[in-house]
Amino acid sequence: MTVKHGLTHHAQRLRRFSLQTIEDARSLGDGKVVLVDHSMGGIAISAVAECVPEYIEHLVYVAAVMPASGTSVSEYRTAPENEGALLAKQVMADPKAIGAARADPRSQDTDYWTNGWRALCHDLSFSDSRKAQPVLVDDDAQHAAMPASIDS
Length: 152
Hints:
Elements: H1 9-27, E1 33-39, H2 41-51, E2 56-64, H3 73-76, H4 95-98, H5 110-120, H6 126-132, H7 142-145
Helix pairs in contact: 1-2
């Protein structure tokens, strides 16, 4: 198995993690593993489970992305079953088209900020969430465009 060239640093890290996890699972012999991940890590454990289902006892998604096989997060966020999802409303353009998963930290729209608070950091006060949201802009869109599968 190889890491694909041309992927951004974050996408390479996700792919390397997935491939390493597959190797680790195989090295355990006949035992099965429970994989737990959070956020975008759901892509990685989904891909691992598809590659080596015989080594997986359970997958646990903790507030994680769980796209259907072969579907990128970018595509999944706009799928009919995600209509009304709060996070999709925060993305300002198609990540594949602009090369970034871009939110708008300069927005003056109170509804936009309230939605972002509810979607991403509702455990903070609204005021603290306003301070934190500019760091949520992600210039690395390839992890959002990466399908939940691995070439082996």
